[in-house]
Design a protein that fits this description.
Blueprint: E1 6-11, E2 21-26, E3 34-43, H1 46-52, E4 69-76, E5 88-91, E6 94-96, H2 102-105, E7 117-118, E8 137-141, E9 146-147, H3 154-157, H4 163-173, E10 181-185, H5 191-200, E11 204-209, H6 215-221, E12 225-228, H7 232-237, E13 242-247, H8 255-259, E14 262-270, E15 291-294, H9 300-313, E16 319-322, H10 327-335, E17 342-346
Parallel strand pairs: 10-11, 10-13, 11-12, 13-14, 14-15, 16-17
Antiparallel strand pairs: 1-2, 3-4, 3-8, 3-17, 4-5, 5-9, 6-7
Amino acid sequence: MCNNCQTKVLRALNSDYSSFERGYIERRELQANDVAIDIKYCGICHSDIHQVDNDFGNAVYPMVPGHEISGVVSSVGNAVTKFKVGDKVGIGCFVDSCGECEYCLRGDEQFCTKGVVVVFNSTDYEGNNTYGGYASNIVVKENFVIGIPDALDMAAASPLLCAGITTYSPMKKWNVGPGKKVGIIGMGGLGHIAVQFAHKMGAEVTVLGHSQSKQEEAAQFGADAYYLTSDPETFTALSGQFDFILNTVAVSLDVNAYVRLLKVDGVMVYVGLATEPQEFYVGSLFGNQATITASNVGGIAMTQEMINFAAENEVLPKIEIISADRIEEAYERILNSDVRYRFVIDMATL
């Protein structure tokens, strides 16, 4: 530990949202390849709630969530070459990997065979629990820090470190661009960013929403069309229309119905993390030789590419900035789908 590494945090003591309290932790001493960051903003992701709720059975309390971190470099180790004091930077979902396996070497650190170290509620390679971005500062290895272009607002940049890369990465993998027809299921925290990316990549974009309440905003984000999933006629009208469908919702779907919306060799990608089982009839894939798959965020190089693309093409999450003392309210509102579209905590209020 070090004398000047005390960090003020907002931590959950158990799975009850009202258990959040202010406190302190010790960050590690700055090493040669480390970057120390004063955190300015941290987005709230639904997966933060999953972890606090212990939905995956691996929660360690007290827990400091947060993996959509934007801030300013406060100091650097003597071997750091990519960043300097004063730079605008971000931290996303993970903070370490082996750097040597086939997946790390190809830029997919999230699949590290040694085990990627997640920014919070994870165990680092020294056996220490990790603490995330609901905090005043953080220390991270240089290779896991993302540069934020000056053109990008720091508060708006925060959700891009998870929601942005989560939606951008599969679009790049499956070649979304001019001449492609893209369907986005849901236009919430992930979906409204996905619409912007697909539009800016040159695709024809259709939102598949459960109500008409977001139709006007969908057009503002770049959607060419908006259809209601509650209307059976939608699935008749759009049959065989899409090259690519991105499912951003975290609920069970009639998978067979959505598969029929794909063209031959079309792809449906899950990025919404539903806790319920998803079921489909294998025979529904044969008519169009469709693919159903999922996408697990993206590597560091892809995340940097995404941030640069967002800055150059004005892809901006729509955010509501809150103070640290409103965390319980924010979690409840997310669960009630009462946010348009992402909460971001102003860490100056911690």
